[in-house]
């Protein structure tokens, strides 16, 4: 039984240690906001925060997590969808199908924590999540809008 | 969507009169089925439910996969209903209910950019008749003629007496009235909700993780399945060594699926996938195991000069005019296989008993999913139903094909009464798609001494989608869909008038399954035409814009969008240092579109800086969502142009994941300026038409920058540094 801290709560998980965090979240903790897109850390749909850093949870095994690691998923990013990025996303109607957007927001949130006023070049370098609907232009606008609100 | 999932506190039952509800999906509509004998008292009519608290629920038959038509269709209903937009929510009536009610919602098909343009009239009528019923109910209560009452923002008023009431207060009385006939729809000039950039109705849950996609679904007691299909198309499953994995954690059963696949069913999907990866499987790879991209290319290339071909468009005598031409220009283009690569891999959840089957899945066509489910269940349609979930991408993959539904039901039959969710891995999804068809084209044109085109000849060789997917739609053997953007008239008509024209198609169908892929054949056909037109303009020493416009006198709407992008982009004026421009236009899915791309090429690296796009889609329901579709379609089309190719070796697709099937990222996203110029009088599509102009506009700009003409894709095949 592994003990991990997710969204501020310590929970016990009965899963094989090799199970990726993504599947622990989705199948054991019923937190399905992190999505399965590729399984090999290429697309970013599974992005969560581990100790404040964006992590692609599909390749992050349960074994590698200790009880003191703080895991935050989209469900824990804000109580009520009020994170500046979430508000900007709603204001700009960023999502299309939306499947990649939770990972996109988590990647952007980690970026803003580290770099509160990212330039376009910073966004280009840091946001490598795949969106097949092609929301990139609004994603960029949403990050800037959230950065300005936080400032 | 009002659908909520509350499975933990509800028992799992099946086979009862309200089986759909018993699974925990609170689909309010299903309560209507229980009252089938007494009509549908909870609704005004099939399209509109008004609650006492003024909430307005608009029923949407078409699927939401990101394209925004859930919101657009609701706008159309709400426009006529005269409700308060702030009170609007939506729900999907299930396909079985549609059948039970005589297809009151008509088609569920969500493809071909038809969601709105095919249904706008009857969905607006749904709103209009509901409005009339609400007004009549109020008028009767007041004892006044309904013609003296009017509705606005959910409030009904009788000016003469100063009385007013709300939709919510008269809804119950209205629901008992006959649905009127002969109701007039509004004049488009009077629209106040349609044509507005209202916010999408489905955003909030998509930014909090609450939106439940098919891949996220969890039902009580649900098992999870991972599947592997024979890597070679047409091959079959010979055997597998069940004992090797049967005792692995969580594994319940190894199931043979159809004749070509095996699934591992386990408590959790990760356990199922882990066991599947360890399962020794023996395939009979069948007759196509030696097919390669090279053998496919040779097979198709033979069609470029074959005698037999289906004619798609012809006027004058192109061959004779070519023979007499001052000079001729010829070029051969090609377009590869591509995967839809929806972000959400294929999946479906099914529960089956001897007398009922229910499926939850992302689908672009709920009725087709129902048919697939019923067939796989071995049950009549009436004993099955499909619960649609928003799609994590569709792009054509989830419309005509429900292989994943058939498989899920097949697996669920092994566990009567227990729900089973089937989720494909990304690798399964990449290697078992329904691929953008592969074609080549030889284009030949005759020019006279003035550089004017005397003949235009296109021979397409390659794969037919219809032959692979719905052969019943072939016309005496011909696939008319193959001629998109080359047809003499209609929603895919050619945007030029040539004095002599011949377009024909030598059908060559390799074993790789083809599918409708966002933009369909407009993608490559527009590249062929618009890049070749650029070649001709340069051969004739003419400006590519003027050269095109000279042939567009009979195509004023095409000319208008082309002129619009040229003007906005500054065509004819110097671009910034190192920036080069290219143009393209077409008519596709009923809309007229054009693009002007601006690119630079530095050390062989292409950067797409800006694309100005224009679309004349007749009427616009939601301008900001049209813009979103233009931008999104460019990402899809340019990803294909830059990177998209599925290659074949040993009969199977080689690309397994996004490392070998690369797509555009945010760093590559150009500025997109969208000019929406609806000319009215027709309804054109939005989701697909603009995809077709992105790639040729960029390719023509690359030629302007480098002098290098790209005739086969993707761009990764070419070294532009050598230009």
UniProtKB/TrEMBL annotation, chain A:
Transmembrane segments: none
Record keyword Oxidoreductase present: yes
Pfam families: Fer2, Fer2_2
Organism domain of life: Bacteria
Coiled coil: none
Molecular function terms from GO: 2 iron, 2 sulfur cluster binding; metal ion binding; oxidoreductase activity
CDD domains per record: fer2
The keyword Oxidoreductase is assigned to this record: yes
Gene3D superfamilies the record matches: 3.10.20.30, [2Fe-2S]-binding domain
Keyword vocabulary terms for this entry: 2Fe-2S, Iron, Iron-sulfur, Metal-binding, Oxidoreductase
2Fe-2S ferredoxin-type domain sequence ranges: 1-77
InterPro entries with a match to the protein in the record: 2Fe-2S-bd (IPR002888), 2Fe-2S-bd_dom_sf (IPR036884), 2Fe-2S_ferredoxin-like_sf (IPR036010), 2Fe-2S_ferredoxin-type (IPR001041), 2Fe2S_fd_BS (IPR006058), Beta-grasp_dom_sf (IPR012675), Diverse_Oxidoreductases (IPR051452)
Protein name, per record: (2Fe-2S)-binding protein
Automatic annotation (TrEMBL), chain B:
PROSITE patterns in the record: TAT
GO molecular function: oxidoreductase activity
Gene3D superfamilies reported for this sequence: Aldehyde oxidase/xanthine dehydrogenase, a/b hammerhead, Aldehyde oxidase/xanthine dehydrogenase, molybdopterin binding domain
SUPFAM superfamilies found in the cross-reference section: Molybdenum cofactor-binding domain
Domain Aldehyde oxidase/xanthine dehydrogenase a/b hammerhead: 208-287
A Pfam family: MoCoBD_1
Entries under InterPro entries matching the protein: Ald_Oxase/Xan_DH_a/b (IPR000674), AldOxase/xan_DH_MoCoBD1 (IPR008274), AldOxase/xan_DH_MoCoBD2 (IPR046867), AldOxase/xan_DH_Mopterin-bd_sf (IPR037165), N-heterocyclic_Hydroxylase (IPR052516), OxRdtase_Mopterin-bd_su_IorB (IPR012368), TAT_signal (IPR006311)
Name the UniProt record assigns to this protein: Aldehyde dehydrogenase
